[in-house]
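Example (one chain per record):
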Amino acid sequence: MMTDIEIAQATKMLPITQIAARVGLSEDDIIPYGKYKAKVDHKLIHSDRPDGKLILVTAISPTPAGEGKTTTSVGLADALNAMGKSTMLCLREPSLGPVFGIKGGAAGGGYAQVVPMEDINLHFTGDIHAIGTANNLLAAMIDNSIQQGNPLNIDPRRITWKRCMDMNDRQLRFIVDGLGGKVNGTPREDGFDISVASEIMAIFCLATDLQDLKDRLSRIVCAYTYDGKPVTAGQLGAAGAMTALLKDAIDPNLVQTLENNPAIIHGGPFANIAHGCNSVTATKLSLKLADYVVTEAGFGADLGAEKFLDIKCRMAGLNPSAVVLVATVRALKHHGGCAKTELSKPSPELVRKGAANLARHIDNLKNQFGLPVCVGINAFPTDTKEEMDVIREVCAEAGVPCALSEVFAKGGEGGKELAETVLSIMEDKPIQFTYSLDQSLPEKIEAVAKKIYRADGVNYSAAAKKTLDELAALGYGNLPVCIAKTQYSFSDDAKLLAAPSGFTMNVREVRLSAGAGFVVVICGSIMTMPGLPKHPAAMDIDCDANGRITGLF
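Predicted structure:
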């Protein structure tokens, strides 16, 4: 059996100019990055062409290996195109953190992938590097301002801006820098986030043009003065140079699927520690180029879909016409208490026990958000008919259709049942947001915790409560909330599987993302700089003397 990378490397790709022409893009609209990648002018989002229909793909609470949400998205787009429906795929850019960590590559799988797979998973067009550099420019300018007489009266103990890099490196979470004497800066506690958790990534993914990008960058609150006043990137004079670093990155990236269908991949905030959606420019551009757009939101629907709807859609005026909830037999067995080593053994009983997780996600999407939903069963070779029948029964009880997705093994052909099901449920219904913006920050946090997670309440650390009070006093109380928590549970405890209730969410820390336009609420033990596992995926990745990469999933 061929690996994902072997399948991708065996594929005959079309020149990116041909892919662009299929969706009406001229050579003046694109900037090729080699033969098979191109940047597309972001200004085309302002075209007067009517928007297509948006299809959101999300998932149940995943296992550490993921549940094939990206694979399902790719296969669904290929299936719709095979049915003669003009369809664009719109995905996030993979971060090097998970590529070299647990999950490996993130460009789909089997016969439902985007290519060139190696480029997409590694440096691609350099967007994430540009974001990291813009982030670190601001960090350097903060410390330099202090070194050069501190004209803004910055309190070094209240610098909230961290440096970042696109790699899992726990050693850098908490550091002390500025050592070595006066000429080398002011000694202080510091730390790193992974680039995809940087506020720059969030801003990048929510901005609609360069002016909006610069305005948002200017509003970043990166420190406080000795008398407690916020200090912004605009006050430091950093916003213009940061925008210059991101000037090319803001243009979405055009690639193709294995079946030579168009795909835009742009932006990549994590859903467990950021807002988890590709860029607004990518989504809006896709809606101008095709009649249907398939996009994804990261991790489970309690994280990615909630933020996609409550943050991205609210800010950008987007509205999905259908939601696909990806479920797998193995994940439901996991939520039913099955040991990792036993996941390949048939057990309809454990599937039914774990199906409480599926039922709750359906209920949230259908009844809390009020959207049309169907379930896509992402098939694995070890699944049995009896196990999949349990999923169908749960969907029938919940009043939503479901369809078998065999896109991993069969590509677009294996996604036709799912595509037909999606088309059958499409409806333009307004999103019922989880909270209103005029509620207080604690009320918004509690609305998500109680309505989406089904917690009994929220417990705040003293530091978190103090920050919430300060943000309200500074006029930031009207912002939406972006909750950072484990992806493996509805709760903030990764060990509480299936559909827990009667628990309390624990808010450890609160961070203001004034430029992005939301407040980050960090719960439980979630880290904004992940670490590598005992056996990182990086140990299995290699490159031979001819430049051929192996082991990348």
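Caption: The CA atoms of residues 465 and 510 lie 8 Å apart.
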